[in-house]
Write a structure and sequence with these properties.
heterotrimer, A alpha/beta, B alpha/beta, C alpha/beta, B: alpha/beta, Rossmann fold, 2 domains, 4-stranded parallel sheet, 13 helices, 8 strands, disordered C terminus, C: alpha/beta, 3 domains, 22 helices, 12 strands, about 50% helix, globular
Chain lengths: ~220, ~260, ~475
């Protein structure tokens, strides 16, 4: 018996039963299709508009910066203004989503697309959705949006359509399950990187981004 | 209403006045109080010390002795918790004893819980002009949900000012055998508790468990503190003219 | 690093004298304790979620063999490898074999209690690999060559001045006149130093907060982002996880996710919750090519079906530590185990044997706060009492204590003897004790009187007085 068999045998021995029957296995697996949810907090059982307010409130509580742009096309200008404010004059690394590539990134910004490296100070990505219950962004790793964009740069800017704000984590997972294949990584991101390891005082920007900036826009204004 | 009083071994030895105070309060509420003379200990030392065999034997004794009362009342949250919560669990694998333990548990109450929740005492009709802070003993608080009851009763003592104790729900460090097995840790917990008590600047410290009270009084007196320590029963029964815990007949000498 | 096996009483004495530790522990109470309270007040469904989560975990443990196999199947489908380790040595051997296999030089680590439990760092180092902890707290204790003192904030006992000292000592590449006076400067330096490590690591090792059976997800719940950089930048990612971390579905885990950060630090959610699904995809631009999960038993399977099974529900939030008055008095290192505090008082004897940790279940007043705050409703005092029972029957507890308990039990079982003994002791206290109503010394009571007076009874025993009254 190898270690795997031994451990499984020990488990069954402790539980005083044999391996499950095929029928029992099917019953257990049926639960995956049912996807039962547990107890969902009342705070996000609200209207779509209220969800946006809740999202913004929770995200800001978690020290994310939340700004609005009039439409998707206005994002580069807004980002350029934010970076000037932060005195970040280096380039930005952008996820290579087709609609991000279609934007005019002039404004004296030096841009490149792809995975981030240690020299990138600023990254721009989209996200799958926002979760209102805690102001959380959900990002999916892909060729277009490599995970390093979310963690290496000091400033991470995320474009989020208000139509893509959902109530619960479970809602986000419904969206992910509907995708054709599982990504390598799903990131829930809520505010910037932080640590309480120095005398329990929260310090921002230990390994991940020091600033997380969420740009909200209305979807039908992409064109 | 026939109430069997479980005096507790600590009260029996160190502070009989608490037993008499409990009787006075119960009789004030028209209970007939009986004190079975064969009672000894609830069995907590054995139980918490890991001697399950003796804990069961002692519990059997108590269950038998107190079987025929309408209620059992105890001036101690930890002993009441022992009977209410732990006796049934001691007998979970023995149907008959489990039933008897449950029957006993169902009619066992800590004193202030009984006075408030069962007989609905609205006013203790005593006066005591003093400021007081109350320590929530752990077992009473967490096993029996005793929180508001002592405060409600104390609020009816004329002239008494209640001040909430900072960290009132934090353990005082007594823990039965713990304080003599791990005296240094116990002392640290006790020192922190006493610092909180002294910060309230009260005249009196009260609680519902004599173990906690002796622990805290012992430290207050070692520190030469003028703060008087009483069991809540003594205050509610108006027995505060007698020396407080850890004070002798010369207690009214000026504080050092 | 495994804590040294110092005598508990000596460790406690050292801890009580340690001024920086005591200062740090004071902060703990006002920090995490009050933040947790606020977080829970803002989630009215907290208790319901707790109950649901307890059911989920109990179910998962009841079918642990099934769910582990489901998890394994999913991970393999995503191009990962799953290894099974019966004990700590096995787990370390597997990890070392992987490291040899990929010719690793540098290994970065995200924070993982199970890797502390199995002594992985030491095993790697002995096998010739360079290991760097990347969680700031773990990095600090690695520099100090100390054991963690808390399961969530391992360097909680270290003051910022001490961290600065350690950084000056370890980071000679920087100007020795630089300022490290405030936390921002310390954090900035740590970011800089560890950034290099992430990017040059050959292997990243992380733990797992949850393992999901339905789709093979490995979930880490972090704030720093180091776990993410550890698992994304290196070409090989090794996950080490206890087998009890299994949860059936993602939706199930979301309930536990609502409990964990609130119970641990009072946050509604941590900055990052990351779900890893195997190795780099064909068209990914980053991510590890090699993905391994090491499932560790190390005594867990033995706990199933016993009094200790409830402990397997633990989600390592640390709430019990934060609320424990004993932990707050002595800190984590005094416990002499990687798992300190109330959860450690149960888990340490469960995994490592009661003989090695016989003090831990005893060093508790059973105040019950741990059980009160445990999000997974683990009956910690009851389980500690169970170990006390084992110690009593196996004669592990000291003879004096057992003899004392047995004597008292004998007295309690014989009312006539009880009354006699109480009367005699009452007389002795009144005769030999002081007239002041308290005594600073009393024969045989030095553990008490070292720190406090003994109140002297004012009269005969209650029963003596009552008997006299009744006879009138």
């Amino acid at each position: 018996m190898n270690a795997r068999e031994k451990i499984l045998a020990k488990i069954r021995h402790s539980l005083q039963r044999d391996d499950l029957t095929i029928e029992q296995v099917q019953i257990m697996r049926n639960r995956y299709t049912e996807q039962p949810r547990g107890i969902l907090p009342d705070r996000a059982k609200i209207t779509k508009d209220e969800l946006i307010t809740l999202f913004v409130d929770r995200a800001q509580q978690a020290s994310a910066i939340v700004e609005t742009v009039t439409n998707f096309k206005a994002a580069p200008a807004k980002i350029a203004a934010l970076l000037t404010q932060e005195e970040l004059t280096g380039g930005i690394c952008i996820a290579s989503d087709p609609d991000l590539k279609l934007l005019s990134w002039g404004h004296n910004l030096s841009v490149r697309y792809g995975a981030a490296d240690q020299n990138d100070q600023v990254s721009v990505t989209k996200c799958l959705c926002g979760v209102a219950e805690t102001g959380t962004l959900v990002l999916i790793s892909s060729q277009q949006s490599p995970t390093t964009l979310n963690f290496l740069p000091a400033v991470h800017i995320v474009l989020l359509a208000t139509e893509d704000i959902v109530s619960y984590y479970e809602d986000a997972w419904d969206l992910i399950r509907a995708m054709s294949h599982l990504p390598r990584t799903v990131n829930f991101i809520t505010g910037p990187s932080r640590t309480g390891d120095i005398e329990q005082k929260i310090q921002v920007g230990i390994h991940g981004p020091k600033k997380l900036c969420i740009l909200l826009y209305k979807k039908d204004s992409i064109l | 209403m026939k109430v069997g009083l479980f005096v507790t071994c600590l009260v029996d030895l160190f502070r009989p006045q608490i037993g008499f105070a409990a009787i006075k309060l119960l009789e004030q509420m028209n209970c007939t109080v009986v004190v079975p003379p064969q009672q000894t200990c609830c069995g907590q030392p054995a139980y918490n010390g890991g001697d399950r065999v003796n804990a069961k034997k002692i519990s059997q004794q108590v269950i038998k002795l107190f079987a025929d009362y309408d209620y059992i009342v105890i001036p101690s949250g930890s002993c009441a918790g022992m009977l209410r919560k732990h006796y049934p669990s001691l007998w979970s694998d023995h149907a008959e004893m489990f039933q008897r333990a449950n029957a006993l548990a169902a009619k066992t109450y800590e004193l202030t819980a009984f006075l408030t929740d069962i007989v609905g005492m609205k006013n203790v009709n005593v006066s005591y002009a003093a400021s007081l802070t109350y320590h929530d003993s752990c077992s009473g608080l967490r096993e029996l949900d005793i929180k508001q009851q002592p405060r409600n009763l104390l609020a009816t003592v004329a002239g008494l000012t209640l001040r909430e104790l900072p960290d009132c729900e934090t353990c005082c460090g007594f823990g039965g055998m713990f304080c003599v097995k791990y005296p240094a840790i116990s002392n640290k917990m006790l020192t922190d508790k006493i610092a909180n008590v002294q910060a309230t600047n009260v005249d009196v410290l009260a609680a519902g468990d004599l173990g906690c009270l002796m622990n805290m009084a012992g430290k207050l007196k070692r520190d030469n503190s003028p703060i008087k320590v009483f069991h809540i029963a003594e205050i509610l029964a108006g027995m505060t003219d007698n020396p407080a815990i850890g004070e002798g007949m010369q207690h009214h000498a000026t504080a050092k | 690093m495994q804590p040294q096996n110092k005598n508990f009483k000596h460790s406690v004495a050292d801890a009580l004298k340690n001024i920086s530790l005591q200062t740090a522990l004071k902060n703990l109470n006002t920090g995490f304790v009050s933040k947790r309270r606020t977080a829970i007040e803002n989630l009215p469904e907290f208790d319901q979620i707790r109950d649901y989560s307890v059911e989920i975990k109990n179910h998962a443990l009841q079918y642990l063999d099934f769910y582990l196999q489901e998890f394994e199947k999913q991970v393999k489908q995503q191009g990962g490898q799953v290894h099974w380790a019966e004990d700590a040595d096995d787990a370390c051997h597997i990890a070392i074999a992987i490291a040899h296999d990929v010719n690793a030089k540098l290994i970065t680590k995200g924070k993982s209690m199970v890797t502390e439990e199995i002594g992985l760092n030491k095993a790697f180092i002995n096998a010739g690999f360079n290991v760097v902890e990347t969680d700031l707290g773990e990095y600090i204790i690695q520099l100090r060559d100390e054991a963690p003192s808390h399961i969530v904030v391992p360097a909680i006992h270290v003051l910022k001045e001490q961290v600065a000292e350690n950084f000056f000592e370890a980071h000679k590449q920087f100007d020795s006149n630089r300022s490290l006076n405030n936390p921002e400067e310390i954090v900035s330096e740590a970011r800089h130093v560890l950034r290099d490590k992430f990017l040059s690591a050959d292997i990243g090792v992380t733990g797992a907060n949850f393992l999901i059976a339905e789709n093979g997800a490995v979930i880490i719940v972090t704030n720093e982002g180091n776990g993410d950089l550890t698992q994304t930048c290196a070409n090989t990612h090794i996950v080490v996880a206890g087998i009890e971390k299994i949860v059936p579905t993602i939706n199930d885990a979301m309930n536990l996710l609502r409990l964990l950060p609130r119970s641990a630090t009072g946050q509604e959610i941590t900055s990052y919750v990351t779900f890893a699904f195997g190795s780099r995809r064909k068209d990914d631009l980053d991510g590890p090519e090699n993905y391994h999960v090491i499932l560790v038993d190390n005594g867990r399977s033995k706990m199933l079906g016993t009094e200790m099974a409830d402990m397997l529900r633990c989600i390592r939030c640390g709430a019990c530590l934060n609320h424990c008055p004993v932990y707050s008095a002595i800190g984590g290192q005094a416990y002499g185990s990687v798992y300190p505090g109330p959860m450690g008082a149960v888990l340490s004897p469960s995994l490592f044997g009661i003989k090695h940790h016989h003090d831990l279940p005893n060093a508790s007043t059973f105040c019950g706060r741990c059980e009160q705050v445990c999000p997974m409703r683990i009956p910690l005092p009851k389980m500690m009492r169970h170990y006390r029972e084992q110690e009593f029957t196996q004669k592990i507890s000291p003879l004096t204590i057992r003899a004392g308990l047995k004597s008292w039990a004998f007295v309690a079982k014989n009312p006539w003897l009880y009354h006699l003994v109480m009367s005699v002791v009452s007389i002795a206290l009144r005769v030999f004790g002081s007239k002041k109503g308290r005594s600073q010394r009393f024969l045989g009571a030095s553990s008490w009187t070292e720190f406090r007076d003994i109140p002297i009874p004012a009269s005969k025993t209650f029963h003596a007085l009552w008997r006299a009254k009744e006879q009138k």
